[in-house]
Amino acid sequence: MTGGMFRLDEEMADLLIGYCRERLSLEDVPLDHPGDKAALAAALDGLVNEHGSDVRRVLDVVEHSLAPAVISCDSPRFLSFIPAAPTKAALLFDMVVSSASLQGISWLEAAGAVAAENQVLALLARRAGMPEGAGGCFVSGGSAANLSALAVARDEGRVRTGRERVRIAVSEEAHSSIGAALHLLGVDPLVVPTADHRLLGARLRDVLDGDPARDDVVGVVATAGTTNAGMVDDLEGVGEVARGREMWFHVDGAYGGAAIFSTRTRGRLSGASRADSFVVDPHKWLFAPFDCAALVYRDPERARRVHTQHAGYLEVLHRDASDAWNPSDYAYHLTRRARGLPLWFSLAVHGTDAYGEAVDAAIDLARRTAELVERTAWLELVREPELSIVLFRRRGWDTDDYERWSRRLLRDQIAFVVPSVWEGEPVARLAFLHPGTTLAVVEEVLATTAPPASDVP
Ligand SMILES: *Cc1c(COP(=O)(O)O)cnc(C)c1O
C-alpha cells in the first residue's frame, strides 16, 4: 500500500507531537552523553528494513538510545563551542515550516515566505547600520554564508583587476571556515598579523603597503566576535582601508554579530555599517533553531550577478523582475527551506527588546564570571571578556588535567566544557548565550576546579 505513507496516521501524530510537546516543556534539559558506537549500532540494527518497523519501537530507540547520545546544545549547562538556545516560539514555528513544506527558493513560488524573511534581513541590516536596500538571504550556516560572500568578492575583484589570481586579506584569528572558503574559491589568503589578537586597519594598511603585489588583494575579512575569545576586530579601521582601496569588506559576525541587538555593546560593531557583506548566525546567539545564517549584502545586485543560476526551466523566475526577490540569487544554493521564518515568527511575537535583553544577559554573565575567576586564588583570567566568552587558566594544570576535568564535568552532568588553547597554552573556555545559564551554574563549574582541601595554604 504505497498510499499509506502519505496519509496521516493519527497514532503516529499523537506520539510524535506528544514527544515534541514534552521535549519543549522540559524545565531542565538533560545534558546527555557522548555516544558508544557499538551500542548505537546494536540499537539501530534491523530498524530500517523492507516492511517498516512499528512506530513505537522506532520511537523507543530514539528516546532511549539516540537522544541520550546527543549532547544537548540547548542545555544551559552546554558551555562549549557555541551553544544554542532557540526560543520556544521559533521551535514551534520550525514545525510549521516543516509541516507546510514552506520553501523559500523564489518569489514566484514562495513570495509570502520570502517577504517575511526579508523583513528580518532588513532589520538585521538596519541594526548593523547598513544602508537602505541592503539585503540577501538565509543560508545553512556561517560557513555557507562566508563562502557565498567571498565568491562575490573574488569575482568582482577579478573583473576589477583583470587578474585571474586574486588574494583576500584575513587575520590570523579568522574562523576556520574562512580559510576553507578561500581554498574552495582558489583564492590565496594574505594573512595579516594581529595586534593583541585583533585585526587593525593600521596593520592591514602596513601589510598592504609593504607588499609589492598588493594590487591583487581584492577583499578583506574582519571578524565581529572571534569564536575562541569573542573579540571584535577594528571594523571601522579595516572598513576604511577597504573602502580606500576598492577592496570588498566582509564582516564575519556568525557568533558575535548578534551584539547588534545589545544596547550596551552594539557600539563595538558600529564599523559593520561599512561592510559589503555581513554574516550573523541566528542559530547561534539570536535564538533560532538550526540551521540558520543570515547573509546581508550592502548592494545585493552585486551578489545577484555572481549567484543567479540559469537554466531553461529557471528563466521564468527572473522574468517578472520588478519586485521579485529570489533568495536563490544571493548564495550558492537553489532549493532551500524557509529557514528564516522561525526567527521571523519569534521576533514578531516577542519583539526586538526581548532579544536585546537576552543578548545583554549573556554579556553580563561573562563579566560576572570574569570577576568570579579573578577573585578565585587558583584561577587566572586570560583577558576581560568582550562579548560572552570567558577564557581562564587553572594554575598548575596541563592539557591532561583540563581534559580530565572536562570529562568529569560531563560524566557528572554538571556541564559540557571542552578546553581550548590560547597563545599555545591550554585554557578553560566558557561560552554563554543561553538565558537559563545562571551565575549559580558557573559557580558550580568553577567549584570543581578547586584544589583538594589539603593543598590550600
Ligand atoms: C560559527 C562560526 C562560523 C561558522 O558558522 P557555521 O554556522 O558553523 O557554519 C564562522 N565564523 C565564525 C566567527 C563563527 O563563530
Task: Note the topology.
Elements: H1 10-25, H2 37-44, H3 55-66, H4 88-99, H5 107-127, E1 135-139, H6 142-161, E2 167-171, H7 176-185, E3 188-192, H8 201-209, E4 217-223, H9 235-244, E5 248-252, E6 277-280, H10 282-285, E7 293-297, H11 300-307, H12 315-319, H13 341-350, H14 352-375, E8 379-381, E9 389-394, H15 399-411, E10 420-422, E11 425-431, H16 439-447
Parallel strand pairs: 2-3, 2-4, 4-5, 5-6
Antiparallel strand pairs: 1-7, 6-7, 8-9, 9-11, 10-11
Helix pairs in contact: 4-13, 5-13, 6-7, 6-11, 8-9, 14-16
The protein binds pyridoxal-5'-phosphate.
The site of pyridoxal-5'-phosphate has 14 residues, from helix 6.
- Strands side by side in the biggest sheet: 1-7-6-5-4-2-3
**Ends apart, CA distance between termini:** 76 Å
Mean pLDDT: 96
Rg over CA atoms, rounded to whole Å, is: 24 Å
Any idea how many domains? 3
Assign the CATH class of the largest domain. Alpha Beta
Mind explaining what this structure looks like?
- This protein folds into three domains: 2-30 and 35-70, no CATH class; 95-350, Type I PLP-dependent aspartate aminotransferase-like (Major domain) (Aspartate Aminotransferase, domain 2), CATH 3.40.640; 353-455, Aspartate Aminotransferase, domain 1.
- 42% of the residues lie in helices and 12% in strands.
- The chain is globular, with a radius of gyration of 24 Å.
- The protein has helices spanning 10-25, 37-44, 55-66, 88-99, 107-127, 142-161, 176-185, 201-209, 235-244, 282-285, 300-307, 315-319, 341-350, 352-375, 399-411, 439-447; strands spanning 135-139, 167-171, 188-192, 217-223, 248-252, 277-280, 293-297, 379-381, 389-394, 420-422, 425-431.
- A hairpin with a 2-residue loop joins strand 10 and strand 11 (425-431).
- The chain is an alpha/beta fold and 457 residues long.
- The structure holds pyridoxal-5'-phosphate (PLP).
- Pyridoxal-5'-phosphate binds next to helix 6.
- Pyridoxal-5'-phosphate is lined by residues 82, 141-143, 146, 175, 177, 223, 227, 252, 254-255, 281, 293.
